[in-house]
Structures are given as C-alpha cells and as structure tokens.
Design brief:
Blueprint: E1 3-11, E2 14-23, E3 28-33, H1 41-51, E4 55-64, H2 75-92, H3 100-104, H4 118-187, H5 197-211, H6 214-231, H7 239-259, H8 263-283
Parallel strand pairs: 3-4
Antiparallel strand pairs: 1-2, 2-4
Length: 287
C-alpha cells in the first residue's frame, strides 16, 4: 500500500529525521539511505521489519547537526582531501585551480567531524523510525478503509449479477424444452410419428444437469461472504488470502459461463469478469 510517514528524535544538540515512502509490493522490500556520519541502516531495517509486512519502502535518514560554524567540518579530512586533489591536479592539469568549494563537495568532508556516539545515534534513529512507521501505518489504515468500501461495493455487484442468474435458471430449462420440441416438430413434419414424452423428459433432464450452475452459485456466494469477512479482519495482513479468494471467484465465474448455454447469462458473466478484474487490481494494494 502507498503511504508516507516521518519521525524526528533529538540527537546530541541536533536532531535526526526519518522519512518513509511506501508503494505496493508483494513482499517487504526495504531501501535505506543514511548519511555517512550515521551508519545506522541496520537499525532502521530492524525497526521496519518488526512493524511492516509488505510493500517497497524507501527510508531516508537525515541528521540535522548543530548550526555552529565548525561543527560539521572534519578539518583533518578536508586537508587530506585537498592535498589529494592538488596531487591529481599536478598530474593531469597543472594549470587548474583547486578550490575549497570542490573539497567541501566531497562526501564525508562536511558533516563527518560532528559524529555522535554510536549508541546514542542508534537509540535516536530507532525512536525516529518508530514514529515514522506509526505515521505510515496510520496512512495505510485510512487507505485500507477506502479500499474496503470499494471492494464491498463491487462484491455486492457480483451478488446482484449472481441473483439474476439464479432467477433465470427456470426460464433456461423451459426454453430448453421448447427448443427441443420445436426441433422435433420440424424433424417429424409430415410424419405419423409422435413425440416420445419420456425421451423428451430425459433430454431435458440431461441438459438441466449439464447446465445447472447451482453448485457454482453456492460456492461463489460462500467466497463472497469470506471476502467480506476477511476485509473486516483487524490486526492481520490479509492480502495473500484475498489473492486466493479472487482466484477462486474467477474459477466459479468461468465455470458458470461455460455451463450456462444462454446469451443473457453469458452477458452477465462478461460483466462479472470485468468487475472481478477491478477487484483483483484493488486487492494488489492490500497488505
């Protein structure tokens, strides 16, 4: 599920800020970026794996160091970097001027001098990550409520189509008998032979058994009930179960379409498949 969360915690005289951005993914895929001065990616990952189950999550850690003039500059590293750049300049292009600004753009020169105690940094980053994860989860919950309303509405549309199909089953059987009588009448036209009512009843019964979708209708109804029950489950990740239910719904709808030899039901099945595909797309957004 998509979402954003941010959290801050004090770190020395400054602060550390953690920002999380989440998009849909079948598994938990963490990508953590930290400043060189704070090598705490493992702390962020540990907190997120404990709180998040799925999604591609990008975590960004930023250290807001004290605003003093020299707190963020590692003078020793800056001198070594400048000497190295000058040596490179002398080898490649002696006329080139090496500026101080070019030294400050080298990663680790500015900000490395104000490194914090590692344990203190880990505690602060863990606290900020916890706040950010809670904020992200709250946003996911709001999105989940909207998705639930949408899915329940679409499940009700499937129920309406299924109720129409169930109501048409007697008409289909009656139509089958009439079509058989019409065909037999044409075949026997001009003949003294009559209609074998017993054989006709057998043919109608055979067609009724072959095209009866009562079992599929019952299972489809059961799956829809389980879909709504699963959507109402609290405190659990239900995305994979919903994936399975959508697969089973599709199986029953396809069977109804193949068994019911009727244009009207065929059209309803097409509409049900289209609605199920919309449900399938939404389920991919659920953890």
């Amino acid at each position: 599920m998509t979402g954003f969360g941010a959290g801050e915690a004090r770190l020395g005289d400054g602060a550390v800020r953690v920002e999380l951005r989440s998009v849909n993914h079948r598994h938990l895929d963490l990508r953590v970026r930290t400043p060189e001065a704070l090598d705490v990616a493992s702390v962020v990952e540990e907190q997120l794996r404990a709180k998040l189950g799925r999604g591609r999550v990008e975590a960004s850690v930023r250290w807001e160091a004290p605003a003093s003039s020299d707190a963020g500059l590692d003078m020793a590293r800056a001198r070594r970097t400048y000497a190295a750049l000058c040596a490179l300049r002398d080898e490649l292009n002696p006329s080139e001027v090496v500026s101080v600004a070019s030294v400050l753009r080298v990663p680790g020169v500015f900000g490395a001098g104000a490194r914090m105690d590692r344990r203190e940094a880990e505690v602060a980053v863990a606290a900020a990550t916890t706040l950010a994860a809670s904020s992200l989860i709250e946003m996911r919950v709001r999105e989940g409520a909207a998705l639930k309303r949408d899915l329940v509405a679409r499940a009700n549309l499937l129920r309406a189509h299924l109720a129409w199909i169930d109501g048409e089953r007697p008409r289909i059987l009656t139509g089958c008998r009439e079509r058989l009588l019409t065909r037999i009448a044409k075949l026997l036209e001009g003949s003294e032979l009559g209609v074998d009512e017993a054989r006709l009843a057998q043919e109608v019964a055979w067609f009724a058994d072959r095209s009866d979708v009562a079992e599929e209708s019952t299972r489809l109804t059961s799956h829809l009930v389980e879909l709504e029950r699963t959507l109402s489950t609290r405190g659990e990740m239900v995305g994979r179960k919903l994936d399975f239910l959508v697969q089973e719904l599709g199986r029953e709808i396809n069977t109804i379409g193949s068994k019911a030899n009727d244009a009207g039901i065929g059209q309803r099945v097409v509409e049900m498949k289209a609605e199920l595909e919309r449900i399938r797309e939404q389920v991919q957004n659920i953890l």
